[in-house]
Design brief:
four-stranded mixed sheet; about 30% helix; alpha+beta; 2 helices
């Protein structure tokens, strides 16, 4: 298991993150968790960045698994 993955999951479980953000780049959304002032893209257990087609996939997962509402998340979008 990837160490960064565990750090990010722990930050969500214990609500020890500074900020949560969903950034959309063209067709994909990325979930960024800020811990100790540094932003980290959510990775899977193998350390590969997780990509989402829709922001609601992230917000629904956060609500169901960690009881984190969309009001705690910043949203931004970039087109190239």
């Amino acid at each position: 298991m990837n160490n960064q993955y565990q750090v990010l999951i722990d930050a969500l479980e214990f609500k020890s993150f500074d900020k949560l953000e969903i950034k959309r780049f063209d067709d994909f959304s990325y979930f960024i968790i800020y811990v100790d002032g540094n932003g980290h893209v959510l990775v899977d257990k193998n350390g590969i960045r997780k990509e989402y087609r829709h922001a609601w996939q992230i917000t629904q997962w956060l609500k169901e698994k960690y009881k984190i509402g969309s009001g705690q998340i910043e949203f931004s979008s970039f087109k190239q």
